[in-house]
Amino acid sequence: MKKKPRIILIIGMPHSGINLLSRGLETMGGFLSHIIDTNVDEESAMLDGTSQSPVFLQDSISRYLRDPNKILTQYPTGYSAFRGDRHEISELDLAQITLHYFPPKKNRNDSVFHSLNWEMLHFFQERHRCIISITKKEIALLKNEGFFTRATQLLLEQMAHKSPPARIFHADHDEEAAKADELRYVMKSDDGCMSPYGPSKNVSLTQEPSDFPASVVDEDAISELVLHDPLFTLLLPFWKQVFQKCHLEVSIVIAFRNPWSVAASKKEYLEKSFWVWISYILCCLEHSNGYQRVFVDYDELIENPMHQMTRVAHTLDLTLEQKSLASYCEYIDPSRRHYHQALEELKSEGFYQQFTLEIYTKLLEVTQDKKPFESLKKSFIKWKKAFLEANDLLVLAEKKDATINQLQEKITNLDESIYQIQKTINQNSHSITHYKKETDQRESQIAALIQAQSALDKELFQLRQTSEIQNCLIAA
Amino acid sequence: MNKKKRVIIVIGTHRSGSSAFTKGLTSMGVSLGDSLIGANPYNQKGHWEDFEFNKLNVSLLDFLGNRDQRIRAINEEERERLCRHDFFCKASDLLIQKISDHKIFGIKNPNFSPLLPFWKKVFHANDIDLSFVITLRNPWNVATSSYFYLKTKDQEVAFWSWISYLLSCLEHSSGYDRIIVEYQELLKDPAHQMQRVAHALRLTINSEALQEYCEEFIDPSLCHYQEEKKTLDNDCFYKKFAMEIYETLLSIAQDQTSFHDIGRLMHQWKKQFLQTDALLVMTEKNNLKIGKLEDIIFKREQTIFNLGKMVNNQLYSIADSCKKLHQKNLQIAFLEHHYEQCNQEIRLLTQQ
Asked: Environment class of residue B40 by beta-carbon count within 10 Å: exposed (0-12), middle (13-18) or buried (19+)?
């Protein structure tokens, strides 16, 4: 039986240890060695929870736009392949967004997917897309805008990167021949979108999808592509369709973290933080249904990485590399985890905290293998109902946050204007004082001249008189 | 014989026809006092609302810090804060002063709805025989009317306020004489509605006054927002929830069911409402914050305007100074020239 290429998605809420998990997946079979290369600062940020969540991204775009040169020089080269005239926002925007959210890293796969994910969420121009899952209607909108084709192409391109093609052929001529070759696997989706990439070829902006050469790879070489980005969580209903179209196997690793710790690491209302946590978890639960999936708790991962990686490897049929696993376990340092509260220490006040605690407790039971995934099915229906009742207020809260940020930015701009006007006023005051001084000087000068003139006039008068007398005498 | 003073409170949401109804109470011998808020574009036939009770309610909500943004009824902790402050005495004094000359006194103010936990304590302390009239209107129409008259921009806030106020009214009027009056039903048949009220609250109707109220006061043309039920799109939870409450309460207003029958539902509604409580608190906080930021922006813009004026004056002053300086320079040049001419003449005359 032919082995299908597989996507392993690591999803979950920001601040839940997604990056740590993706690094942990390096320890499995070596298939990730060229993908994950996160820088140490980012990991530290994840450990102490100081990295920013996507809900703050939109605000920072405008700030980053003020210094584009800095961004361009810092951005890794990976996004250059991601071009196309159907892009709604510029590459610069994408670079800025990605940079701000995830510091520069060599992981080209993740950054281009993150950019596309952000572009899709940005397309709706509503901030609440960053806290709740997209709807069927929105998926249709994304498809109309060509995002589906782009996502398919990007995915195939990245799969081709992962497994370098044995040979490249043009779709119109050699595809059938390639299909007939049982040792090969043709990277081509149902709608004719093929991988646009060969190792020595660049994509032409004028090329149509059907012009792209298809990549053919050895069956044995096909393996997994691991992608981690919290935005996949909200866009999962869309990506599921992309994966299906590309005939890819999908496995999902869901990262989650004690919601009290997540709330402590964020600067927003506690109520909102908890509801957003619920939103992400329910989204993960709902849209990972039917796939091979595993939940990993951040605290469990920090406390016993060996066990968690073994669980993940076992569930996803992956092989652990003991040497890498050992160095990964050494890398994990529980002392750098700033926010942590044990389950028995959690105090739940009000419905939203009780509700969150209920979900968290049940997820922990599944993570600790005390209960099977199926045990969550019944609870999920109840949770989803309760969440839908609060959904609109959560969306409203997100909109209000956006308004507050806009107003705060306006105040900053007004303060800047006031400062500039006050500066002008000071300069003008100096000018006025200067002119006054000059005028006073001129007046003194005029007074002195008048005085001198007066003395001169007297002298002249006397001289004229003397001259007149002399003239009279001469005439006589 | 019951010698207790009687007070009838008209409660409900803003824009639910409570003003139109309250005037009708006068046809049942209920006094509304003599310091009523007059008519304005928001209520063209008058508010029928005591000025001082309204002022006190506004100061109570101001004290709690979120008058305009209030969605939920006050909680126990807030009630105690109001009582610990001198508001309890103020409220008692005002109540005694207002009702002293009247056998039955009617008070209407929508702000009573979120403040009922506090006011009930005040009424209870003063041994008042309390009755409630709850005015009801379709939440869609209240939301539309609130958008135009109260500038409530968010539909979610309008609907959740409606739900919150009504649940507070239902909860805190329980155990007292009470009745629901629906706005459209009132406009359709005011006489019938007044008879219902009189019957439920043990009041006697003055036929002449009622006729005058029905024929001269009630004017259906003043109802500007009346949605057709079929056009309403109850696509989200809060709309469905509000409509469920409305339709149940409408059946009480139409005497098809009773308060007693909805006891279980009420418990369920309250539970559902409490699930969103934290998000409503957050919405109130956010709205309050937005209000404050808008105030700051307004002040900053005023400052910029004034500074701009100052800059303009400075520029005029600079232009004027430049002009003067130029004139002085011309004068100096003229004087120097003249001086030189005189000097030359002196030199000539001296040589001669």
From this structure: exposed
Global confidence as pTM: 0.74
- Residue A9's beta-bridge partner residues? A227, A252
d(CA B203, CA B25): 9
Which residue, among B6, B37, B192, B186, has the nearest Cα to B111 in the 3D structure? Answer: B37
Is B329 in contact with A391 (Cβ distance < 8 A)? no
Pick from B270, B275, B304 the residue to mutate for testing the A interface (most A CBs within 10 Å): B275
| DSSP 8-state code for residue A184 | E
Strand positions, DSSP E, A85-147: none
Q: Which residues of B touch A400 (CB under 8 A)?
A: 283, 286-287, 290
Q: Is B349 on the interface with A (CB under 8 A)?
A: yes
Contact assignment for A457 to B342 by CB distance below 8 Å: yes
Which of A388, A404, A449 faces B290 most closely, judged by CB atoms? Answer: A404
How close are the terminal C-alpha atoms of chain B, in Å? 133
Six-digit token string for A38: 């996160």
Q: Using the 8-state DSSP alphabet, how is residue B132 labeled?
A: E
CA A243 to chain centre: 22
What token pair was written down for A35?
A: 């993908």
Q: In which order are the strands placed within the sheet that holds B177-182?
A: B104-108, B6-12, B129-136, B177-182
The three-class DSSP label of residue A39 is: coil
Tens-place pLDDT, residues A382-423: 999 999 988 888 888 888 888 999 999 999 999 999 999 999
Q: Residue B72: what pLDDT?
A: 84
A338 within 8 A of A317, measured Cβ to Cβ = no
In angstroms, the Cα distances linking A151 to A82, A92, A115, A174, A319 are 11, 19, 11, 25, 29
Q: Which residues of chain B does A424 touch, with a Cβ-Cβ cutoff of 8 Å?
A: 311
Tokens of A301: 């991962």
Torsion (CA) A164, A30, A295, A287 in degrees, nearest 10 = 0
Distance from CA of B346 to the nearest CA of A (A): 6
Between CA B168 and CA B122 the distance in angstroms is: 17
According to DSSP, the β-strands at A167-170 and A292-297 are unpaired
Q: What are the counts of helices (DSSP H) followed by strands (DSSP E) for chain B?
A: 13, 4
Q: How far apart are CA B339 and CA B331, in angstroms?
A: 12
Least confident segment among A189-193, A446-450, B91-95, B327-331:
A189-193
Local structure of residue A89 (DSSP, 8 states): S
Give the residue from A469, A391, A334 showing the smallest Cα distance to A20: A334
Write out chain B residues lying below 8 Å of A413, CB-based: none
At residue A56, what is the residue type? Answer: F
Nearest Cα residue in chain B from A403: B290
Strand ordering across the sheet containing A184-187: A167-170, A213-218, A184-187
Across the interface, whether the CB atoms of B308 and A421 are under 8 A apart is answered yes
Per-chain mean pLDDT for chain B: 87
ipTM over 0.85: no
Of B156, B293, B307, the CB nearest to A422: B307
CATH of B6-275, one of 3.40.50.300, 3.10.290.10, 3.10.25.10, 3.40.50.720: 3.40.50.300
Residue range B310-338, pLDDT digits in tens: 999 999 999 999 999 999 999 999 999 99
Q: Give B49 or B106, the one with higher predicted confidence.
A: B106
No. of helices (H) and no. of strands (E), chain A: 17, 7
Which is nearest to A15 in space by CA: A242, A215, A265, A225? A265
Residues 6+ apart with CB under 8 A from A448: none
Task: List the beta bridge partners of residue B104.
Answer: B6
**Residue B337's Cα: distance from chain center in Å?**
78
From chain B residues 148-177, the ones with a CB under 8 A of any chain A CB are 154, 156-157, 160
**Bridge partner list, B9:** B107, B132
